[in-house]
Specification:
Elements: H1 15-18, H2 41-49, E1 58-60, E2 82-86, H3 88-99, E3 104-107, H4 109-120, E4 130-134, E5 147-153, H5 160-169, H6 171-183, E6 194-197
Parallel strand pairs: 3-5
Antiparallel strand pairs: 1-2, 2-4, 5-6
Helix pairs in contact: 5-6
Length: 198
Amino acid sequence: MPLPPYIDREDEAGDREMYQTIYAQNPGSVAAPTAGLHFTPDVMEQIRSRGVETAEVTLHVGLGTFQPVRVEEVEQIKLHTERYEIGHDAAGKIARARAEGRRVVAVGTTTVRTLEFAASQSTDGQIAPQNGEADIFIHPGFDFRVVGAMLTNFHLPKSTLLMLVSAFAGRENILRAYEHAVEARYQFFSYGDCMFIE
């Protein structure tokens, strides 16, 4: 079982259960979309009981998600592609939420990339049912069209994922959040704590 390079050990039997979201269905991902690891059936039931509508998309996270930034200029970064599928049900729910002025909350940076990439494939920014490979690189200055909030883990320094959350919340806000996380001894990375950004 592929584990992130910062988990410096061989995979164990427990990883097959722990390193998997409760709603995973389709094989193909080489890593878990780790923000989803925070959800249990009880948490999902509590969310739905509060009137929150949920929608699922298929994400095939690639090994490139763990690659550090190795160039000086943002424009030189070539981001990996990740396969995705957005079904009719999910596309419809997202469209209704946006039309009704409700916020679309993405669980994880791969979901953010997928939704924003899907919106970029249409002239009006709407998300149609589709599948493909997202190669969008989100960094400060990006204009978010779909995502209104996100749940995400704390990411590695010098990573494109840290750039993505900085693009969403602002670099200074993210630096303050990370400073607090370090002081409070939060756990970082795949099996670590998460933050809600709006």
